[in-house]
Design brief:
Helix content is about 30%, strand content about 25%. By secondary structure, it is α+β, with helices and mostly antiparallel strands. It starts with a helix and ends with a helix.
Length: about 160
């Protein structure tokens, strides 16, 4: 009887293992020279400051943005919020402000942000992104602004200029 139960449970063990191996890690995509911002249509690489990209449920196309500000304006729209699976932004402590490198993309939900600094991005006030709170605080001490986690970025903040 015990052997019979073991044989009946065996397929379940394989099924559980199969699910785990079917999950694919999502990584940031390269921003090409000719990619345009999903929000404003501007050439993304032509302008300074951190960029962003959003991965959406069931879509092969990845919206890319010329600024983290535009990315947040897209993501915070109620019709887009529930479709977002992953977001990426540049860690500005690890890349150049004038020409951010794709190798510096990090998970936007774990990043720290500085809003209101004197350093501007493509669309005015930057929402500068950093991989650590310490890097964000250092940036804010040098250039002004307030340090915020991902959850504190909202449309009201972005509307204030």
């Amino acid at each position: 009887m015990k052997k019979l139960w073991g044989l009946l449970l065996l397929p379940l063990l394989f099924a559980c293992g199969q699910e785990a191996s079917d999950t694919v890690a999502v990584v940031a995509q390269t921003i090409d020279e000719h990619d345009r911002c999903h929000m404003c249509g501007m050439m993304i690489k032509k302008y300074p400051g951190p960029k962003g990209q959003v991965h959406l449920k069931g879509l092969q196309v990845t919206p890319k943005f010329c600024s983290t500000r535009d990315m947040f304006n897209f993501v915070l729209q109620s019709e887009n919020k529930r479709q977002v699976t992953n977001l990426f932004v540049h860690d500005m402590a690890k890349t150049d402000w004038q020409k951010p490198e794709d190798s510096a993309f990090i998970d936007a939900k774990t990043a720290w942000y500085v809003y209101g600094a004197s350093q501007k991005a493509v669309m005015g006030p930057a929402v500068a992104s950093f991989g650590t709170k310490e890097a964000a605080v250092k940036y804010a001490q040098e250039l002004g602004g307030i340090v915020l986690p991902y959850e504190k970025i909202d449309t009201q903040l972005l509307a204030d200029q």
